[in-house]
Amino acid sequence: MMEVGSYKFHRRALAAFNQLAGDEQAQVLGTLAALAGTPAARWPAAQAKRLRAEQPLYLVRVNDSLRVIVREADGQEPEVMDVVRHETLESFLKAARNGD
Fold first, then answer.
1. What is the SS3 assignment for 18?
2. Which of 44, 69, 70, 95 is the most buried (most CB within 10 A)?
């Protein structure tokens, strides 16, 4: 597991992060740095959206294409669970709606 500022990276997220181009890695780190120290409930709505899940998961917009999924539990450091492309999420959503 890797730590960046106050964020831990799950191994799945770290693998995805390491496959990004250097400029995209910098954008991810910059986005996380801007949110560090602020409780997830107070993150800007235009940038972060709470997902409907049992765990406190947030979908955080990095840029037009990249999103990070962050888990924030009370009293624990936030953890980046995954780094995904918006297009991939849209594809999954479309497949789910079509019953695929």
1. helix
2. 70
pTM attached to this predicted model: 0.84
Residue 47, Cβ density class (10 Å: 0-12 exposed, 13-18 middle, ≥19 buried): middle
Angle of CA points 28, 72, 76, to nearest 5°: 110
How far is residue 75's CA from residue 98's CA, in Å, rounded to a whole number?
Answer: 39
Show the domain range for 20.
2-97
Structure tokens at 80: 């980046």
Query: Could you tell me the CATH number of the domain that includes residue 73?
Result: 3.30.2310.20
